[in-house]
């Protein structure tokens, strides 16, 4: 097992998990800044967006996890705030980041959909890199597998296979499956955003669809999924949608006694919602703006208009004084 602690400064231990998450956020920021320059958006806008979005993401990721595991925290409320003990959820982080981004973007006068589009590659690359924090901690893995499956069927490198050996048992490196899926998704988003048919908001919806499809299939391999007891028909539907994967893998066990994985259900709902939204926006004529169209802040336009009005009034006033003098 690799040491999850990168280094220590006195009593303070710096974990690889935190370094990797910080790197993920930085790379995502740089991608957003670079694309934002094409639309003449200042880098400071995205830096401030990150400073607001990251704390919101962490808080909501914790709230999301605690809400679905409330039975583990209701008798020990102090544990709710001990985030270093583990227990955050990516979907909760996504909700928090998007909510914070909505209010900040609107306060700056930008279209929320346009900014989401610019940030979409940064979101998926952040998730792609961030999953390697799970690798360092030997967490968020799948069920047991044979070592030969990892080495000779999947042909994974030694450093991954060895780290998936936990107390003598090898496990599915689901962190790697999701990271690789997100890498392919990143390339897809890069290709899509240069296509002339793409409308505002659709790059973000494409990100949601791609990520959610991968998360649905990978989630079933994990043994730490948040779950709940749902109706039998819903559990059967989830299993039926996942059934093509049984040719290659077996599902991981459900740890918390439920029969429906929350992340799987949410992934299905996000895919359906994103597809319907794209279709409705196009049918109703709401998606008239293309991705490649200029992005202008409404507040910048207002400010410019006010300046023009002031200049016009000043000119007319000067002409009036000139006439009076004559």
TrEMBL record:
UniProt keyword list: Cell membrane, Membrane, Transferase, Transmembrane, Transmembrane helix
Record localization: Cell membrane
Amino-acid positions noted as binding a 1,2-diacyl-sn-glycero-3-phospho-(1'-sn-glycerol) in the UniProt annotation, renumbered to this chain: 131
Region (Disordered): 299-326
EC identifiers of the protein: 2.5.1.145
Listed pathway(s): Protein modification; lipoprotein biosynthesis (diacylglyceryl transfer)
Membrane topology type: Multi-pass membrane protein
Example GO molecular function: phosphatidylglycerol-prolipoprotein diacylglyceryl transferase activity
PROSITE patterns: LGT
Main location: membrane
Bilayer-crossing regions: 14-33, 45-68, 80-104, 174-192, 198-218, 262-280
Family assignment from sequence similarity: Belongs to the Lgt family.
Function: Catalyzes the transfer of the diacylglyceryl group from phosphatidylglycerol to the sulfhydryl group of the N-terminal cysteine of a prolipoprotein, the first step in the formation of mature lipoproteins.
Protein name per the record: Phosphatidylglycerol--prolipoprotein diacylglyceryl transferase
Organism for this UniProt entry: Paenibacillus hexagrammi
